[in-house]
Every structure is written in structure tokens, then in C-alpha cells.
Amino acid sequence: MNATSSASVASDRPFLPLLVLLFVGSGCAALIYEVVWLQMITLIVGSSAISLGVVLGTFMGGMCLGSLLLSRYVSRAEHPMKVYAYLELGIAAFGFLLPFLLPVAGGLYFAIAGSGMLGLILRGLFCALVLLVPTLLMGATLPAIARWVESTPKGVSWLGFFYGGNIAGGVIGCLLAGYYLLRVTDTRTASFVAVALNVVVAVAALLLAKESTYSGKRAAADAPKPKLFAAPPGTWPVYAAIALSGFTALGSEVVWARLLSLNLGGTTYTFSLILGVFLIGLGLGSSVGASLAGSVKDARTALGWFQMALMAAIAWAAFALTQAVPFWPVDPTLSLGPWFTFQMDFVKTAFAVLPGAFLWGASFPLALAATMGEDRDPGVMVGTVYAANTVGAIFGAVLASVVFIPALGTQDSQRMMVAFAAVSALLLLVLFPSQTSVAAGGAMRRLGALAVAVAIGGLLITTVAPVPPLLVGFGRFAARRYFDHGEFIFVGEGMNSSMAVSQLSNGVLNYHNAGKVQASSEPQDMRLQRMLGHLATLIPKDPKSVLVIGFGAGVTAGSVSIDPMVQRQVIAEIEPLVPKVVSTYFGQQNYFVAENPKVEIKVDDARHYLLTTDETFDAITSDPFDPWVKGAATLYTKEFFTLVREKLNPGGVVTVFVQLYESTPEAVKSEVATFFEAFPDGFVFGNTHMGQGYDIVLVGQKEPEPIDVDMIQAKLDRPEFAPVRQSMAELGMYSAVDLLSTFGMEAKYLKPWTADAQINMDRNLRLQYLAGFGLNMYRQAEIYSEMLQYKRWPEGVFIGSPDRIDLLRMQMMSY
């Protein structure tokens, strides 16, 4: 019977190899859309873990529904390649329209959105509104084309190859979008490339349909529609196992992405690489699984043993990412360029991720073979298996990012994934084995499988180690800092990031996040953090309300809080663990700002908060993550700076941190030029270390006004400003002149330097791609030296008594 069926598939269903190529194109387009749409939508709903979970859940949920609904609403009599072509055209239509519709939909969302549970529900509704239809169409493509093959071992094998081809295209699309299209073009151009791919695939499918005949089974007019989830008797354990497989796959991917972002640096390139390598593993595995599905006698048992092997693969990744890769004797600063960095990062990622991804990829075609029925509608068969896998994946991704990692940490999260893989294996090998296994003396085999699962699973769980504090603290430089890192007094894994606090032998405190020191009590860092706060509150005449973007060690927020004129202070921080725990270690430096009654902490993405609040401020100061950290560039776009200006009251001032270290001239030019697009009369204040450039503060005003040096000094002379004077004195600044003498350049004089700058906009987020190339570079002295060539005395910028202005001029030009 199998030989006859195989011959039937070969003769009656031509063009199968060509369909694999079409699925490569379809998968490439789908991953371009996914990368682009996620970037566009997080600009609206925020880039916190909760927002990303909502977006990802909606995206995958739409694909799940599409896989189930196709067989219910599209007759089996319809030509599969025509249906596939029309689905691709529908995806292309939405791919073309979404870049234009999203801003309109975003405006509606901002008008009604807020915080809390209602805000979360609205985010979900918004994502469903814009993503449900195109993702539903994407999810229907594989079940649609499944009807071109028969429900036979050979046919199922081809379905596995289609799935593998789709994943192979996904690898291309992921890397193409993340490394090239979005780096050199923008979201619209990238979308149009994907639209073109969809159209080409659709046209090719229509041409193939024209050259072939199809005689599908036609249902009777009064026949009931297929059930939404049609599982043949006795197959539910297979669906449960493949759902658990999806759960462990996406749950592990979330954990691995967190650990790999520490090992490699959390740039946009890193996340594209992680996804690309994961998809490579899935594609290779699905190809092998497809071959096995066409020949293996007991697919159900084979699927069970693959799930058993996943326990070892998950434990292997845990070992590789916490005990091996962080301590490879590799110095990232020795890289001669991004291409060499990519090579090493690829090896590190593949070393940890490929084994598990391979086994998950092989599981899908084996699950298809295990649910195969001679008279089953292939569309129903593929749709239900795909839906079960996707439902598990949704729960795995969302629970791992929002619940497991924040509550349990990466160590116990990975232990749970090993345990779930064991449950999946036991379902098929012990609790509900196949009839073939039972007939072949399955009792002993079942006992053996149980013993293996319990013994090996228990052993593997004990091998999963916690994330090393050194990795959390210094990321890709962990090996270099092995003998020089101080004492870690706190290590935590929050919902959005992993963080630590360390103390050196000389008493200096370091706050670590994103695998590097983000703030410290070192003099040069304290100077920058307090400059951000003091410039924001001393320049305005009456700063009653202030917004602080980014809590960090709380030093900037603390310098704002001690200004007696500030009556209300809002701090927007994306990671709830930072103000709750981390800031307490810097209480002396930040004046215990988290406990200050006039301070309100908003746990939210700062961009989302500003877009959804009606409140305006007299001053705003921003100290977000380094711009190379994925997502941080959204707080440096022209649109965001324009929004900040709109949220300032008359006479309001904004200060923004810009790092010069671990950056490139191109990235710094982009940050500075983009800021000056919104604040064309802005200024640069410099923070030097050992006489060389270290970092800078950008200052902008709602309306251009002279900075009154006498007014600032009069404030500082008042008794109630004693804490502010003391804060400045600790930086070596004893007067208004000392603070303002750090003035560097005016926007108008920097125009020649920024003439070739690439403006960072919502459509391109160009900064995160530029900044990613400066990850391992330390050119701060060179960059600031270039900027100093344009330093001039700013005529008309400062007003005050002649003696004070002369003193300011002398100190400024010698700084």
C-alpha cells in the first residue's frame, strides 16, 4: 500500500520540489514581516517584556487560528496551489498597507490607552486589530498546500520538506531584514521587498496550478464542517506532546536569548543572529524528520525519543551559555571589524542552540506522521498539528518572559523546560505508547523508558547552573574580568533584563545591566549623572514638575529630587526590579530617591508613557540604555525628541545622555544631529575624564532663551539649596560658573561636523544599527577631539553680570 501511495504522490502531484522553493520565498517574506512589524508595533505599545509578549502572542495566535480555520472554511475541492496563491496575495496586500495604516491606528490607540490591566487589554486589542488578519493568512499557507499531497508516509515526508523550506526561507528573511534591509533602508522598503516576494510566489503558484490538474475530494452539500480541532481517536497524546515541544522550544529560546544577549551584547544584530541560528536548527531538523517520517514504522515512538533527547539538549545549552561560552579566552576588542565579530558570535550561538533547535525541528514532521490517517484531509491534519505546536509555543514564550524568568530566574526556568520535555517523552513512551510498541513487548520498553527519563532527567536538572554573576556584570568581557571584578553584592534577573551591583575594594559601587557597567560611584560617572539632573532643574526659572527617563542607580533622579523647587517628580523605568531593589544599594549617592514622597515611579516604557499621558513637565532628563542595546534607539528618534518638546511647559528644558565610549563617530553624529532636528538651538555640555572625552549631555529648550548665570547662582546661594550645593561640590563644582563651564558647543557651529549624519527616525531606527558596530570600540577621546574643533564662545547664550560672564568665558574655553 505504501509503495502504491508513493507512486501516486509522485505521478499525480507534480512540482513538489518547486513548491519547496516557493515555501522558501514565502518563509523569507514572513520573517521580514515579523521583524519589521515587531519593530513598528513596539514603537506604539512599548518595548517592555509585557508588550513584547502581547505582540508575539498575537502574532503566533493569528497563525494558529489560520492553520485551524483553513480546512473549516475552504473546501478540499479547491485547487491547493490556487488557495496558496490567494493567501500569499492577501498577505502581500496587508504587507503593503500596514506601514501606512499603523500610524493611523497608533493615533487611535494613544487617544484611549493607559496603564494597568485596562492598558494591557487595550494593547492586546490593538495588536489583534493590526496583526490578526495577515498572521491568520500566514498560518493557513501550510495547511492549504498540504492538500496537494496525500495523507501517506511519502506525502507526510513532503510536508516536512515544505516546513523545512519555509524555515530555510525564514533564516534568509531574518538575517536579510536584521543585517541589511533595516540597516540601509527603512521599514517601508523592507516591507515592500517582502511584498514583492509574496507576489512572485503567488504568481508562480498560479502558473503551477494552471499546468497541473487536481481532483480533490468534494464534500457533500449537507456534510458538517470539520471541527475546529479535529483529533482522531487515540492521537491526543501526540498533540499534547507536540504542544509541549512548542512550549519548551519557545520557552527555551526566550531564556537563551537573555543569556546570549549577555554573552554577545544585546544589539539588534545579536537578536537577529539568535533567531537565525535557531531557525537553521529547526530547518535542518525538519529535513531529517521529514526523511524519517517517510520511512519510520513507528513515528509516535520516534517522536517520544526525540523529546527524550531534548532533555539533554536543553541541559547542554544551559551548560554552554553559563559555564563554557562566557569563559572562552576571546577578547572582543581584538576584533578587526563586524564581520569577524559575527563569525565568533555565530559559533558561540550555534554551539549552544543548534542541538535543541535540530530536535524541535525534527519533531514536527514526526508528529504529522504519528497523526496520519489514510482518509484524513491533509489540511486538517497539518492544521491541527501546527496549531497544537503553536499554542504551546505561545504559552512558552509568554510565560517564560513574563512569569518564569522574573519569578524563578533562568536556572529554574531551564530546569522546568527539561522537566516538560521529560513529560512530553513519557506521554508517548510510557503512558500512551503506540500499538506497535505495545505489540513488540512494550512493557519492558516502557519501564526502561521510564527509568531513563527519571534517572537522566533528574541528573540533567541538577547540572543546570545559575547564571554567573560575572556574566551578568560584564557580559562578553566576563573572561577578561575573572580576576578583577570586585564583590557582587546583588544579582537579579528581572522581567526585561538581568542586573547586578558590585563593590570594588576601594568602596566604589557599580550598577551592571545589559552585561556592562551602566552607572557607578566613580567620580566621572557621578559627574555625568548629576550634571543631567542639575542642568535640567537649575536652568529653568521655576521647575515644579520633572520627568526622569531611566532610573538606573538613581543618581540622576536623586539630584533632581533634592532641588527644593521641584514639587513633583515622575520616574519612568521599564524594569520594576531596578527602583525596588537596585537603587537601595546606591541610597547614599541617590539621596534615597525611591522613598521620596514627591516621587512617583511609573514602571513602563518611557516612550509609551509619554505617548499615553496628558501630563506636561517643566524639565525632562533622559538617561536610557546605551543606544546599541536593542530597543534603546526608540528613545533617540526625531519623533521621540519632538514628543519630548511637546511635553515641555513654556520655559522647559530637556537634558539627554550621550555616551562616547563603546560608540563610533557615525553613531554619535546620528544622536547629536537627530536631537538638534527637534531642538535646533540646542547645546552640548561635555564630561571629560583625565582631560579627554568621556560622554556628553545634550541640552534643549522649549523656546530658545538665554541661560541666566546670575539667576542660577542666586538659587544656589539660598539656604534651602544646600543639598544641591553639596551635590555639586562632590563633583568639584562650587558655583554656577563651574557647572556651566562644561559647555561645549552650539548646534549651529556643529553643523559641518554633523553634515553627513544619518537622522534616527521611527521608520528606520538607524541609530541601533550604527551603534551596534561600535560595541567593542573605545574611541571616546577621538570623537570628542573632533567635536572640540567646533567649540566657540556662544555669543548671547549666557547672560549675567560682566564679571561672572568673563569668568565663565575663561573657564569654559580652558575646559
Could you characterize what this model shows?
The protein is an alpha/beta fold. The chain has 3 domains: 1-212, MFS general substrate transporter like domains (Growth Hormone, Chain: A); 227-465, Growth Hormone, Chain: A (Up-down Bundle); 535-814, 3-Layer(aba) Sandwich (Rossmann fold). The chain contains 29 helices and 14 strands. Strands 7-6-5-8-9-11-10-13 form an 8-stranded mixed beta sheet, sandwiched between helices. It has a 4-stranded antiparallel beta sheet with strand order 1-2-3-4. A hairpin with a 4-residue loop joins strand 1 (487-493) and strand 2 (498-503). Helix 22 (665-678) packs antiparallel against helix 27 (766-772).
How do the strands and helices of this protein lay out in sequence?
Blueprint: H1 2-12, H2 16-45, H3 49-73, H4 80-112, H5 116-146, H6 153-184, H7 187-210, H8 236-264, H9 268-293, H10 299-324, H11 338-370, H12 378-431, H13 435-439, H14 442-463, H15 469-474, E1 487-493, E2 498-503, E3 509-513, E4 516-520, H16 523-538, E5 545-549, H17 555-561, E6 568-573, H18 577-580, H19 587-590, E7 599-603, H20 606-612, E8 617-622, H21 638-646, E9 648-659, H22 665-678, E10 683-689, E11 692-701, E12 707-708, H23 709-717, H24 722-729, H25 736-740, E13 743-746, H26 747-750, H27 766-772, H28 780-788, E14 798-799, H29 802-814
Parallel strand pairs: 5-6, 5-8, 6-7, 8-9, 12-14
Antiparallel strand pairs: 1-2, 2-3, 3-4, 9-11, 10-11, 10-13
